[in-house]
Amino acid sequence: MDPDKLVMPGEVLCTEEEYLPSHSVYAEGGNIYAATLGKVEMKDGKVSVVNLSSEVDRITRGMLVIGEVVSEVGKVMFVKVDDVQAGNKRYAALSDGKIIGGDRRGHQGRGGREPSGKLCREGDIVLAMVDAVEDGIYTLAFYGPETGVVYSRCGSCGNDMRYDPAEKALVCDICDKGVRSKVSSLYGKPNEIKSLLAKGLTQ
Q: What fold is seen in the domain 6-51?
């Protein structure tokens, strides 16, 4: 398990055959579970969780987050949201996100070969605002020019897509295909994205 990964209460850490339970964990049914929010520590055959409650806050409504679109059901796009680091403070993504009504006006794309009427596609990395937190999931929205797709790969060949301002579309230089998504003004600018997220923005 990644030692930098935040674990939530009730999350399985390992089995009792692998490690002995130590601080802030509990054993049940042959598994060892986290008893608090924190980082896992596995040392000297024991597993424990270092409580980081004083250094970790939860992502809340109005914050900007980044994540990967992992699936699509109907008009709902589901997003695996990443934790946000702002200075010495870490904002934990304790839920996944969803983008509702992810359709936009259709566009035939480069050369008319690949129609797309979606704000984003599965596999895209998106920057979005948390519009609501309810029923254990973040409802995400694209507000402002900075929000939208910040990284995308071609669905046919896997090549990195680039933004073509003339086409107003993401294009693949290998397949010569294009799709029009809701593209962030920070597309392909990872340092600027990190700087924006590091401010821990709340609106």
A: OB fold (Dihydrolipoamide Acetyltransferase, E2P) (2.40.50)
